[in-house]
Fold this sequence. Notes:
By secondary structure, this protein is mainly α. The protein has helices at about 1-30, 40-55, 60-85, 90-105, 110-125, 130-135, 140-160, 175-195, 205-215, 215-230, 235-260, 260-285, 305-330, 330-345, 350-355, 365-390, 390-414. The chain has 2 domains: about 1-130, no CATH class; about 140-414, no CATH class.
Amino acid sequence: MLENEFIQHSFIALLLGFIIGVQREMRNHYDNSKDFGGGRTFAIISLIGYLSAFVNGFASFFVVVAFLATAFILIAVNVLNSINEKQRGTTTEFAALTAFLIGALLNFVEPKFVIFCAVVLLLVLNLKDKIQELEKYIAKDDLNAAVLFLTMTFVVLPVLPDKAIDDFGLFVPYNIWLMVVLIAGISFAGYIAVRVFGSGKGIVLTGLLGGLISSTAVTLSLSRKAAANPELSQKVAVGIMLASTIMLARALFVIFLLNQALLHHLIVAFVIAFCASIAVAVYFYYKSKKDSFEDTPIEYKNPFDLKEALILGLFFGLIIALVKLSKEYIGDSGVYAVSFISGISDVDAIILSLSGVAGNTIGISVAGIGVAIAVITNNISKFLICYFIGTKELAKTAGIYYLAACVTLGAFVF
Length: 414
């Protein structure tokens, strides 16, 4: 039994090391660069790792000594190669050390875990081109924003009080900041997508990616585009429709994360409204497909600007307080009024607020109506942007879309 296991693990170590080495060899071939080792070298290194771990059962610390010896050899190779090359990375050397550890692990854990580690290593090694391509689009400010996101999520959020800090029980810092992280995270994903793919890659991409960040911003920008180029009004309307349709999907996703009961109450209405919206958008897309469409770059604010995040947090806190106070002192009509006012500019705050209190402070049906009111109000607001900033043709085309979206949503909620 021990002999069979030894043969099996030795073969796996050789195979995994060989695959890793072949990847490095092919990378050197594509880059037209020279580096130490290939499939055979890495196979031997991985086998040495397994054999060292196996011998470690009879001679303590043997695997440690073997690892250090391998590291020393790799350092020496790197130094010698660096003499002939001005700029040289160390990825291959670290990959070789990892191959050694992968082989050694076979003596301690099941092969499936070792194979998983090898696959992850291959995935990381193959990311070089993608990372270099990403560096072209990601600026220093974007990296700072990503660091800020991590700080907000894993440093600030855990230390915030998870109980109300006021006598009325309105403001729970942890819940408010969690909402900021959630919405900013979704927006940041869309923002990075726009930076990578570009905001002027065509009407479909502009609408789809823009809807992840701000459908209102897309509507405003494309309405100005239509005003400057009236002949493109119908084509521009498609981008606005797609952005607003993505807004519906985004709203439902947020509800899914925060309140399953509210999701079950609204999912049919939102899915039907989404289908009706996408159907109208597809119809006008094919109807205007013969028209030309120039790239339409849209500038978006980075959602992880610290000032913007603080303002967003204050706004969320205010909306939550208004919803609770309205329900207590005015009733359901107060909640609807807050939903209407909040939906004029944005739906995130009110959807987050209602999702957080639905089933507790207010009923599920009341929260569902409030969400629908906010979405419908936001659509009407964007229609008015098309009418007053865009063209009559744009307003007419977009109006058909918003009528379909609002009627289908309202019919299944109210």
